[in-house]
Amino acid sequence: MSSPKLFAPGPVDVSPETFAAMSHTMIGHRGKDFEELYASLQPGLQAIFGTERPVFISTSSAWGVMEGALKNLVRKKVLCLCCGAFSDKWLDVARKMGYEADSIQVEWGEAIDPAAVKAKLEEGGFDTVTFIHSETSTGVLNDLEGVAKVVKSFPDTMLIVDTVSSLSTVPINMDAIGADVILAGVQKAFALPPGLALFAVSEAGMARAKEIPNRGYYFDFFEFAKNAEKNNTPSTPSISILFGLQYMLGEIEKEGLENRFARHAKTNAMIHAWGARHGFELFAPEGRRSTALTCFATPEDFDLSTFIKDLKSKYNFLINGGYGKIKGSTFRISNMGNETEATMQELIDAMDDVLG
Ligand SMILES: Cc1ncc(COP(=O)(O)O)c(C=O)c1O
Asked: Global pTM?
């Protein structure tokens, strides 16, 4: 049997058409062909990010830019907004990098409260905030506009936003909300193989970076900016994935962003309805749920590992049995990327059959 079709929240399924686009003959990255490829990506990426700033392309996973953004922006003390495995880890990473770091910690499955962010920032001393829009481990979609509004009311405080599992599934308006960095990887809703991270930096973010010494090279914002002016990247990028990205941006343009958002909302609602039929409770609170993936609490008497195993052996579909400290006590199903009502229905029929 071939590898299972992925309904886990990243990497997600990659279409044969995308792989075909990626099999383009290799080109050198310091030539005209590459400049054209790079330039062709900008309008689509800027529309998705909601920015007029250049969108930089890093050959790394999202963590590279998550760490890099700290390295470029933190003067001394960072506030990490923690509500799940990835946001908790960002706090850990900030400390590992030697920064003074504090956190707002909410129970996994809860959302970050902008009022709590305001109260914490009022304590003073913070120059940067890290924030995860869609906490992939819990299925919570945090209040991006609310948190950005609070952080922006504190002058000279940078806001770094991870939109790893939300970008292109819901509107992101980087310029309007005043985020200083928006970042994501391509293995989630862009439905590409892992290996690229995308990010944009505000003017204020670049001004802050200018005063930070020891930014290194690989993730130095100024290296990205300098090269972007020539439609290029600081170092050799994963050119094959860039061809895949060019293909996917074409698909996204054809579909239209609004339709893409609506499709994710619809296919996500199908999974919610499936769970409700079987008595599975959603782990994230009403009103703050991701539309790209669903996290269910595993009922006490439910044999999750057999369910996942049978779904795979009988239908070759892969869902995910929870992440971090809620592994086993939750499970997650992704509808990100290219999934349609028809493909989600196939999964639902298969899950119904396996449940008996
Ligand atoms: C919200 C979030 N942030 C960060 C990451 C880390 O991404 P990567 O593994 O691409 O570095 C993930 C991965 O699933 C994620 O879901």
From this structure: 0.98
